[in-house]
Amino acid sequence: MRYQFLGRNCGLKVSELALGVALFGTAWGYGADAAQARLVFDRFVEAGGNFFDTSDSYQFGQSETLLGESAQSMRDDVVIASKYSSGAASDASLAKTGNSRNSMI
């Protein structure tokens, strides 16, 4: 796997391929269950991948949860990009209330 810096000034090196994990979870009625998601995560990491893309709206938040559980033991070695406030989730969480600092945290 080849790596490149993310942006110009942050110093983070990420794999040239990112794994989008929108289908980690089954809350939408389809997707990868926890065991399948972990297998995909492990295979991507074994291939040298360290860059993951998710959103709080994917699988109504289940995607972020499964990714976090998979990455927990190697948190210093992975980079996770997540979007917020897209409004697709079924709940009224803080992330759906705008793009303020409080929404991000």
TrEMBL record:
Signal peptide: none annotated. It holds the Pfam family Aldo_ket_red. InterPro entries: AKR_Detox_Biosynth, NAD(P)_OxRdtase_dom_sf, NADP_OxRdtase_dom. Coiled coil: none annotated. It comes from the Bacteria. The keyword Kinase does not apply. The keyword Protease does not apply. Keywords: Oxidoreductase. Residues 16-91 form the NADP-dependent oxidoreductase domain. One of its GO terms (cellular component) is cytosol. GO terms for molecular function: oxidoreductase activity. PANTHER family: NAD(P)-LINKED OXIDOREDUCTASE SUPERFAMILY PROTEIN, NADH-SPECIFIC METHYLGLYOXAL REDUCTASE-RELATED. This is NADP-dependent oxidoreductase domain-containing protein. It comes from Caballeronia novacaledonica.
